[in-house]
Amino acid sequence: MQWTNLSERNVYENRWFRVNLADVALPDGRHLDHYVIRMRPVAVATAVNEANEVLLLWRHRFITDSWGWELAAGVVEDGEDIEAAAAREMEEETGWRPGPLHPLLSVEPSNGLTDARHHLYWSESATYTGHPQDDFESSRREWIPLKLIPDLIARGEVPAANMAAGLLMLHHLRLG
C-alpha cells in the first residue's frame, strides 16, 4: 500500500521551509494533491548532571498558545554538522556548553505533512558559560530531576512529541 510521489512544485519558500504541492499516485491508481512541507534538519541537545537532573527550558509556543518544558533545539545551518548544531543551540539557548554529545534518537514528528527530522543528543556534563545569548527563547532554564520526567509528560507539561520521546528515552537510559 505504498503511495508514490510523482512530482512536486513549489508554492512557497522562505529560509526555514518550503511548501510544495505533490502529485501523489495512490495504490488503487487514483491521484491526490498533497501539500508537503520540506524542512532542514533540527538539532536538539541537553545534558544530565551528576544528580541525574536534566537541563530543560520553560517556554511559550505562540502557535499552540501553550507553555511547556523543552530541550534546546534549532535548525541545522547549511553545511553545519548536526551534532555541532545541537551543541551550538544548547549553549545559545541555555548558557551551558555540553560536554561530548551522545546520540539519543532521531524522530519524524509530523511525517504525514513534513519531512522534518529531529536529531536529539545528550551529554553527561555541561559547563556554564554565562547568560544565554538567545534568552528570548525561554522564560527560564532549570535542572529538573530526571525521575520526574514521566509525571511531567503525563500532566501535559512536555507537550512537544519530539521532546517527550527524547526525555523518555533519556529517562530509560539513565534510570532504567
TrEMBL record:
Keyword Hydrolase: yes
UniProt keyword list: Hydrolase
Span of domain Nudix hydrolase: 38-171
Cofactor(s) annotated in UniProt: Mg(2+)
One Pfam assignment: NUDIX
Recorded family membership: Belongs to the Nudix hydrolase family.
Protein name: NUDIX domain-containing protein
Organism annotation: Streptomyces amakusaensis
